[in-house]
Records
---
Amino acid sequence: MENVFDYEDIQLIPAKCVVNSRSECDTSVELGGRTFKLPVVPANMQTIIDENIALYLAENDYFYVMHRFQPEKRYNFVKEMQERGLYASISVGVKEEEYGFVEQLAADQVIPEYITIDIAHGHSNAVIQMIQHIKKYLPTSFVIAGNVGTPEAVRELENAGADATKVGIGPGKVCITKIKTGFGTGGWQLAALRWCAKAASKPIIADGGIRTNGDIAKSVRFGASMVMIGSLFAGHEESPGETTEIDGKRVKEYFGSASEFQKGEKKNVEGKKMFVEHKGSLKDTLDEMQQDLQSSISYAGGTKLESIRNVDYVVVKNSIFNGDKVY
Ligand SMILES: NC(=O)C1=CN([C@@H]2O[C@H](COP(=O)(O)OP(=O)(O)OC[C@H]3O[C@@H](n4cnc5c(N)ncnc54)[C@H](OP(=O)(O)O)[C@@H]3O)[C@@H](O)[C@H]2O)C=CC1
Ligand SMILES: Nc1nc2c(ncn2[C@@H]2O[C@H](COP(=O)(O)O)[C@@H](O)[C@H]2O)c(=O)[nH]1
């Protein structure tokens, strides 16, 4: 792989502005036949999303993916979202019982609009078989499959029937896959996204490694239709994680889906737990993301998200922050 880089190594190059106000820039994106306000989705992790946040996001035209760590709640979750006239977006794994769950949804005609197959190493027969199973029983559900980190994987999952693929093995803030296994896209996630996007014929969701709002625009530039984010969404008033105080500061827990805290045992642990500063309301963060992305579109010289896809860029190896922090 030539040209390896990550988010912090890239700066996008401005083009002539065509708007009089950033508010004229449209950040909306289409995925699976619906239009969402932002190309951003909170990670399907237990300290990032719960039923209340899913409801808020769906009601306000944001994309969401409910996590799969309370499997017994998923059936009613789908029904309740749809009874409110909202779309349902859930996650599944690949273990035996998940096959039965998909069949039960089909038998009862409780059909989620979106299903994400959420496992660590998505380039596998297990995922291919699950894609085919969902497409057989729930052909109208939009299937997102992952996670992967190579063009071969994207092609294979698309060929198996996936409607979108999710790219990112190990770039996450609470991920320790890269350290424990030596594998992944950690440290070159943006280059991996570009590599995968070149092979993709369907939407790609960039997953993990987003540390600033500018990284959302960079993801779009390098081929993402949607960006999945954990750490920037952790620590909100509404976030499900436990709130505590460390050194007089209010903090909230954020743990990996493959951490000991999630699994309840120390087996195949590839995630850790951290505490993030309490951040206030989720709405404020979403509004700020939208404003920053509108600004990105204006710097791209357009009025729509797609204008970011064509901008030039430079590689400025490890230098853009110069020791600066956002706050
Ligand atoms: N994006 C990322 O970089 C990563 C994300 N995660 C997240 O952690 C959660 C748990 O993931 P996961 O452990 O896959 O889910 P599960 O614990 O549900 O495992 C899914 C199945 O895949 C098997 N499996 C898991 N990893 C591998 C592997 N490397 N090779 C072969 N088989 C494997 C498991 O068996 P067995 O356990 O017996 O091997 C199990 O049968 C998910 O939410 C996932 O997204 C985890 C790691 C990396
Ligand atoms: N290797 C692991 N990756 C994990 C784990 N739990 C979640 N994740 C991935 O991280 C992203 C979020 O990344 P962030 O940089 O925005 O915080 C999430 O969507 C998963 O793909 C884990 O335990 N191990």
---
Amino acid sequence: TPRLWALNNFDIGTGLGKGQFGRVYIAREKTSSFIVALKVLKISELIKNNAEKQLVREVEIQANLRHPNILRLYGHFHDEKYVFLILEYAAKGELFRHLKKCTRFTEKRTSRYIAQMAGALGYIHKKHVIHRDIKPENLLLDMNDQLKIADFGWSVHAPSQRRKTLCGTKDYLPPEMVENQPHDEKIDLWSLGVLCYELLTGNAPFEESANGRDTTYKRIAKVEFTIPDHVSADARDLIGSLLQRDPNKRLPIKDVLNHPWILKHQKPSNVLRTTNKFF
Ligand SMILES: CC[C@@H](NC(=O)c1cc2[nH]nc(NC(=O)c3ccc(N4CCN(C)CC4)cc3)c2s1)c1ccccc1
């Protein structure tokens, strides 16, 4: 039974960051002292960008998802000027900042994040939800280094023809979206490949290089990318099997989770660890 919330239920803390249409603050619910992230969106901004439908969709979709790697949306409320989303607090912030700080992640760390992403994508695809905006800026880290997919502002129910007004980076768009074709959940498989490449190398494969975005489109449409030598053969194989122009040729999520590069970096399962201590 969803509670009715109001701003005076919370003590508002420091600003955590900002995105399209608003900012996010750390906040504490007064009676429980539970820490949340309060996303504050300006209604006038939403209307100006006719993004209110997108927000309704974000709330409907994210409120109904329950997965360890999907940021929880606990509730929402509004006053005359703002809409407030009560979100799970991810204590280590944006994956993007951690990537920038260390240029690129190790294969083990990247493999674990990709496995977590694949788990979350498998879960939302079973509900015929596609995220459509998988990129490091939308991924957060909690205290246990668990990845959390945030910002379902672009998610829709598959299949979709909806024109994505191209704001922000184009790096993650698959060929079928660059060519405005009908698209389905397989676009998230492409983005998973782009993400894997970017976490391992520090750059996106079709980087919007200096010579403008139409070259990016051309390179995406022709799937033109090179993988640096330091990337292992297994990782190269996974990236290549996701960055397939034909959506039907992309490695399905269940096969991503069974890929050698994913299996070899996983934490040993608890069963093995407990039986081992007797030998
Ligand atoms: C992904 C963008 C999206 N963000 C959310 O929804 C967000 C939801 C949500 N939950 N928890 C968050 N945590 C943080 O943002 C955060 C940032 C820095 C932190 N620091 C830890 C200590 N360190 C030393 C410095 C950094 C900790 C937490 C965010 S962002 C958004 C979209 C529209 C408007 C606002 C925000």
